[in-house]
């Protein structure tokens, strides 16, 4: 079970299925896009934190105990290109029959993924 992208960062808290009918799926390109997404989310989180700190400082102008820039990462350490790619499931189909069978079994695949996620969450 891949760790989903939180709604806070614009995610849908889920995984993706890609049915490749042409053989054109590029793992390298997908990895590059995942890297860009991680950088975007990190920058967005940093901007939000700066805005929060500015509001906090404005509210506490007379107080010297204003929070300094946090040293803790604003984005969870598990949020990286590899965990993003772990949530993308690629099915390569070569003909209409394999495409039809893939689509027919998607519901079963998704249910299996949901059960795996529940089991992993219970173990944590």
TrEMBL record:
Coiled coil: none annotated. The keyword Repeat does not apply. GO terms for molecular function: ATP binding; crossover junction DNA endonuclease activity; four-way junction DNA binding. One of its GO terms (cellular component) is Rad51B-Rad51C-Rad51D-XRCC2 complex. It holds the Pfam family Rad51. Keywords: ATP-binding, DNA damage, DNA repair, Nucleotide-binding, Nucleus. Residues 1-42 form the Rad51-like C-terminal domain. The keyword DNA damage applies. It is found in: Nucleus. One of its GO terms (biological process) is reciprocal meiotic recombination. PANTHER family: DNA REPAIR PROTEIN RAD51 HOMOLOG 3, DNA REPAIR PROTEIN RAD51 HOMOLOG 3 RAD51C. This is Rad51-like C-terminal domain-containing protein. It comes from Ditylum brightwellii.
